[in-house]
Amino acid sequence: MLGDVTQTTDSAAAGPAQDDGRPVDRKPSRLRIHRAWIVAVVTFVTIIGGAAFNSLPGLLIDPLHTEFGWSRGEIGLAVSIDMALYGLTAPFAAALMDRFGIRRVVVVALSTVAAGALASVWMTASWQLMIYWGLLVGLGTGSMALAFSATVTNRWFVARRGLVTGILTAAGASGQLVFLPLCAWIVEEHGWRPASVTVALAALVVVPFVWLLMRDHPADVGLAPYGGAYVEKPAPARGAAARTVRVLFDAARTGPFWLLAGTFAICGASTNGLIRTHFVPSAHDHGMPITAAASLLAVIGVFDIIGTVFSGWLTDRFDARRLLAVYYALRGISLLFLPMLMAPTVHPPMVFFIVFYGLDWVATVPPTLALCREQYGEDSAIVFGWVLASHQVGAALVAFLGGVARDVFGSYDMVWYASGALCATAALMALVIRRQAQTPRPVVVAR
């Protein structure tokens, strides 16, 4: 009922209907909030709910190793399956949203995440960890990945796209900020199973908000996108899987795609795969309590929000290629210093690293999405989904290899240094992405 009331109100605000049913543009009241911002808020909350599970892997490596005797490499493999499927699902999710609508896809995705998190409570073998954590949660969170944000931004916004992209990207960090300290406390005081149940409930709580308040397209409520002209809602796109694969093959024939995919793979390797998965156990190796290390990750989430929103603002104003080069270079330098900062207690240099790294965490997303939009136009959401897949493949490799390196070498130092070198490579790759030639606008001569 709430959704129906909101829809009627928005339709009325758009103005009286023309003979063909299309609303007449009318200057909105200054006090009226455009429906696009409501959709953006719902998207933000949804990503927080879906991202809650991403807070768990780094916290549970040691408890699972202690309880079941599974190696860190084995646990890292399950996390890598989750991250890889998260990425590989994203481009198909964007196409499925075109076919079935955003609401339906997201509700199913949230339910899948909750099912995987709850089922993990009863697991007794490592293969079950790979099914529940890897398969179910990977598919569910992948359907709410950054391609979801790209789809919402492309449909509902013309103006402020960079800013909105930054805000929605920061939702994942907000989830980390909310759930990391909470889950760390639950794991420390009550064990890992209640933490998994908490994450499942967080995903389920978001479902009613999505169903009642989310709309698939501005035309559903008789509105134009924010900052743009009214457009009719396109017919549902059939052959979602075929279209997704076709877009991949078309994009793969262009150089910018491989450069964007390569830089974003390194982005994933140096964030989700490295810091999110292995920072807590690495700090714990040096005597730092799990709750303290998790709190540091939560602080990364605070500054991630600031950095990502600011990056979106910068993307609306500066060359996205140069922004990416700066972000990756600074990230690489900070990782090279991290092994020297590990200690049993939190000290000022470590706090500086956390703040610095947090500002840079996913600041790469707004300029990467902007370059996808510049290069691939209407297919940019799906192309970005494939670029995001490379991000998660990079994350998956480091989540697995980082655990193996810890088992083999007894420390994570080699992983920090290798990731710093990779970030330097990404900075160089970003600078050689070519500009897309712009079609000149026709000049109208007054007669």
Automatic annotation (TrEMBL):
Key words, A-Z: Membrane, Transmembrane, Transmembrane helix
Compositional bias segments (type: Polar residues): 1-11
Spans annotated as Disordered: 1-27
InterPro entries: MFS, MFS_dom, MFS_trans_sf, Proton-linked_MCT
Main location: membrane
Keyword Ligase: no
Bilayer disposition of the protein: Multi-pass membrane protein
Pfam families in UniProt: MFS_1
Subcellular location: Cell membrane
Transmembrane feature ranges: 36-55, 75-96, 105-125, 131-151, 163-187, 193-214, 256-275, 287-313, 325-344, 350-371, 383-402, 414-433
Major facilitator superfamily (MFS) profile domain span: 38-438
Name of the protein in question: MFS transporter
